[in-house]
Each structure stands twice: as C-alpha cells, then as structure tokens.
Amino acid sequence: MKRAALITNLLLFLSITTQAQWVKIPLPGTPRTKDGKPNLTAPAPRTQDGHPDLSGIWQVGRAYLNPSGRGIARYMPPGSKVPMLPEAQRQFEELTKFGDAADPSERCLPDGVPNHMLALPIKIIQTPSVIVMLFEEFDVFRQIFTDGRKLPVDPTPSWFGYSVAHWDKATLVVETSGFNTQTYIDGEGLPRSEDLRITERYSRPDFGHLKVEFTFDDSKNYSQPWNVTVPFDLMPDTELIEHICENEKDLPHMYRK
C-alpha cells in the first residue's frame, strides 16, 4: 500500500505537469498559414549543409499521449512481440507481476533512452558538430556527436550512453552504446544490459513532424535485434518549462504510517 501511495502521488504530479501552460511566443522562422498559425505541414527546414534541421521542441505524437500503458511495445505493429530470451522473460514477469517496474524517475533519476524521450517534451538543438537534447523532465541533457568520431571501445556506463551520428541522405543515424543497468528500455520494465546498443534513425518529413525508428540490439536479453518507430509532434511557438525533482524529499512523508 505504501508503494501504491507513492505511485499515486507521482502520477498525480505528472498529470498536473502535463496540463501545465507552456509560454506562448511567436518564434521567428516558423512558417505560417494565412491566419498566422504555425504551418505544420510546410517543408522541413534545412541547415546550410543541406541536411534536415531537426531543431525544435518535440513531444510524442498526440495519438500516444497519456496511453493506457507505458510499454515501448505499444509502438510496434499489431501482433508483433518483443523477442525476449527465456531468462529475460522470466525476470520481466517477476518484475512486473504487480504492475510496471519501479521507474528510476520515482527517485528523480533519468529513465534513459528511449524512455526519457517519451515522457515530457524534449528540445533538440542542432549544430554542425553536435546535436543536443534538452529534456524537460528533470532538466537533464543528452549529446549526440556528429563530428566524425567513433564510439569509444570501453565507455563508462551511463544513463543515456555515448552517442555518435552520421547522415544517410535525409536521415540522421545515431549509434549509442555504454548504457548502465540502472533503468529499463521502457516504462514497463523491459530489461537492458551493458551490451545494449541502440540505433536511432531520425527523419523529419515536414515542419511539424518527426519520426524516430529505434533498433535495440542486446544479445543478453533478446534473441534478435528488434525495432519500433515512434512519431513526434512539434510544439511550435513555445519553450520548455523548468522541471525540478526534489530527490526523495517526500518519501519519508509518503512512507509514514
């Protein structure tokens, strides 16, 4: 019951956050319709080198906002299944027999990739040598290096891993390794090991939409690489809200009898 009360309070907090009013400001460079509204179907912007500019504030596609489940599998085609190995399946079932796994965010810790991208909005800032993701949730960031460097052979394990990227025509291909095992692939509790490698393919078909295909390769937990494609919608004419999590300060009150 104590854990249930904790989760209830956290879900209430997140629901209030998702209803918050972001600042409204007409940003320069936004294509507009005749009535002055952002034209989300206008062509995607380009950088000076001709690549699509992924910059902007993005949130998971509206059809997936506040879904009934938190699992990444909801983005998979109907009938498809995450190819977990038997031991990983056993651990997953044990972990989730009373509901979703305990989220690191309950302790003000990052959810990692891709789970931390699926909560509150993210802001992408694109430069020639590095792409930065600013996460509204907990005010944390992620760096994706586009300066030609390779993945390190033995990176220090971290929440978001170490990311490098290159362009495949109009698609940004991101390779990430070096994850720790302090979180899961998704909000349900899909396992990940330090051998996990994630490939992301970013495409921006027009001004207001972004598609990210995630491919997960982790031979310790899955029989083969598997992928999902997640749609994101642009949040035009706004900026991120400061989102501070006071680490565990409320836990003594929540657990008090």
Sequence-ordered SSE layout with sheet pairings:
Layout: H1 2-18, E1 56-60, H2 86-95, E2 122-126, E3 130-135, E4 140-145, E5 162-168, E6 171-177, E7 197-206, E8 209-217, E9 226-234, H3 251-255
Parallel strand pairs: 4-5
Antiparallel strand pairs: 1-2, 1-9, 2-3, 3-4, 5-6, 6-7, 7-8, 8-9
What does this structure look like?
This protein has a single domain, classed as Lipocalin (Beta Barrel). It starts with a helix and ends with a helix. It has 3 helices and 9 strands. With 257 residues, it is α+β, with helices and mostly antiparallel strands.
Which sheet architecture does the biggest sheet show? 9 strands, mixed, barrel
Q: Which stretches are low in confidence, meaning pLDDT under 50 for 5 or more residues running?
A: 1-19, 253-257
Q: How many domains make up the 3D coordinates?
A: 1
Please report the distance between the alpha carbons of the first and last residues: 10 Å
What structural category arises from helix and sheet content? alpha+beta
Number of strands: 9
Beta-strand content estimate: 15-25%
Radius of gyration over C-alpha positions, nearest whole angstrom: 19 Å
- Helix content range of the residues, please? 10-25%
CATH topology (fold) name: Lipocalin
Q: What's the CATH class, please?
A: Mainly Beta
- If classified by CATH, what would the architecture be? Beta Barrel
Strand order, sheet with most strands: 1-2-3-4-5-6-7-8-9
